[in-house]
Every structure is written in C-alpha cells, then in structure tokens.
Amino acid sequence: MSNDFLDQLATIEVQEPPPEFGRQLHQRVNRALLVQHLFGLALGSIPWAMRHFLLGTLGAIVFTVTGKFDDQRRRKEENSP
To answer: Mean pLDDT across the stretch 25-47?
Structure first.
C-alpha cells in the first residue's frame, strides 16, 4: 500500500517556485527576527544593564559617603557550606 502512495508522489510534477519566492521568504524571516531581537533587547538586556549600572553607581556613592566597601560576594562565600 505504501509503495503505491510513494509511486504516486514520484510521478507528480512539482512546479518551480516563483523567482521572488526566496527574496520574500528572507524578508519575512528577517523582519520576524528583527522584532524578536528588539523585544529581547528592550525587555531583557536593557533592564539588566540598567540594574547593574545602578548597583555600581549606588555602591560608589555609598563608598564615597561612608568610606566602607560592602562586598556582598565575600559574605556569600563565607556563608556557603
């Protein structure tokens, strides 16, 4: 039964895609990828960078005012088992 189906598929002639098919496909894929990357940048990378910049800036301000450097990494290493 499967041989008949495969034979039928082998005899069907498939038309060539139109010449602009590749260009249209690439434009649609590129547009979708651009939108996806812009959302990732706006919702992920920029807030992450802003958070770390603010933490560094606040740390510099605290160090300038108090003269003490609060290294939270050292506390995490001391408290780990």
So the answer is: 96
